[in-house]
What we know:
It is built from six helices and four strands; from the N terminus they run βαααβαβαβα. By secondary structure, it is of the alpha/beta class. The radius of gyration is 18 Å and the shape is globular.
Amino acid sequence: xxxxxxxxxxxxxxxxxxxxxxxxxxxxxxxxxxxxxxxxxxxxxxxxxxxxxxxxxxxxxxxxxxxxxxxxxxxxxxxxxxxxxxxxxxxxxxxxxxxxxxxxxxxxxxxxxxxxxxxxxxxxxxxxxxxxxxxxxxxxxxxxxxxxxxxxxxxxxxxxxxxxxxxxxxxxxxx
Length: 175
């Protein structure tokens, strides 16, 4: 008899940009870009299939170091956020999408989800437009869930982190 593992009540989704794996055929990426350009806001035939083919492309740390880096960051967050489930999602080129990650969590009974992007500075289209639009659609689809967006990042906090990083990177020498 199998026992279902109890899911935490709260989850965090770390959203990254996503990257095309180095061994993915360039013709596949070029075809996706052509379909995106021709769609102009309307669903172009074959667009979803092309997106899914690239998102589902097999990856290794060698072929997609971006994914490996985001997963490493998520592993560190898991250690720092005990009792919370931490998942990754991607805006493009890599699976799962934000919608897929939220859908899976809600299906597993998670009702409080906080989304945090790795795009930290103001002005980016993913963090200011794409993610909020996706969250609005997901809130409508999952009214039983609380979806929070941990953005924008406090610029002073970000500057302090970067200054600390620079100090450590210089071996403590004056900058």
